[in-house]
Design brief:
- It contains 1 helix and 9 strands.
- It has one helix spanning 11-30, and strands at 39-46, 50-52, 56-65, 70-72, 78-81, 87-90, 93-96, 100-108, 111-120.
- The longest helix has 20 residues, at 11-30.
- The protein has a domain at 39-120: Immunoglobulin-like (Sandwich), CATH 2.60.40.
- It is α+β, with helices and mostly antiparallel strands.
- It is rod-shaped, with a radius of gyration of 30 Å.
Length: 124
Amino acid sequence: MTRSATVYFPLPMCRFVIALGLAVLIWSACSPVPPSPTPVGLSVTCALTTLDIGQNTLCFASASYSNGASLDQTPTSAWTSSNVAIATVAQGAVTAIDAGSATVTARYQSVSGAATLVVRPGIK
């Protein structure tokens, strides 16, 4: 006749293991959720910075985040021109209107960035 070897754990040891498991479960459920990354900067880059009257160019807005990531925010940024008589901008698309200089600015959430464009005199 063979006897199986059964190992019994003392009751205090079982209680300790159960308590430890519950503590880990509760701690993981109650630990704070890390905050979402927030934008810390916005870089505006234009394909051309010197234009002739009537010429177009595209500008892009790239947001840098608190976690080190960078994402294109061109379509989600609010775009403005410092001088619409010189250059207009809509969603990063710039049109040169008249000679002079203008700064195009993109704003995304709490950050903004800008680029200065020069429009050369020429035939209108």
